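Good morning C.,

I know you're traveling, so I'll keep this short. The sequence:
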Amino acid sequence: MTHFPSTVRVDGRDLKLLIARLTIEQAVPFRVRFNQIAQRSARTDAMKSSALQSDDDPAIAKALDRELAEETEAARFLAATVRDFVSVDPSDDLAMAEGIQTGAQLLEWIGPRSSIAGLLASTVYLENTLSTAGKELWKSRRASDSSSGAPTPAPSGETPATTASPAPPAATTANAAAPASSPSGSSGAPVH
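The tokens, ready to paste straight into the viewer:
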């Protein structure tokens, strides 16, 4: 099986991974299930909010039971994705020294942290979905965001937060009040 080399930041360190290159037979059901879980996550947040407001309603209790079952199934899918399609790159000396080589060992290391399992499954999805140019942009943004402390990029369709301060205006009050001539002979006006 061939792999995509990838790097993911976990617990403040870069973890070098090998992401399986999925076959068509693997990719289609994987993408369908991955997208179902992503869409369900958005619905879940809305439902949990309403459940907090009326926890005595039997319909809400039934919905919460269904949500628990779906959440358990989603966790199993994420774990299976990591176990089956992720391994640690042998060049990652720290992971190798800790005895982390396979997806199963990686799951033991991250424990019950579903957000990290989700990040790893997302990496499998993106490595097997994006074009080469798309991957370069994604990896560049991810590296920039993790090194700058900037927030994770906004989901598609949303405007990402600004990370740089706006440039000052070309003509400031100080420039306008500058003398017409300075000791060096320049006018004090901005140079364009």
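Safe travels,
E.
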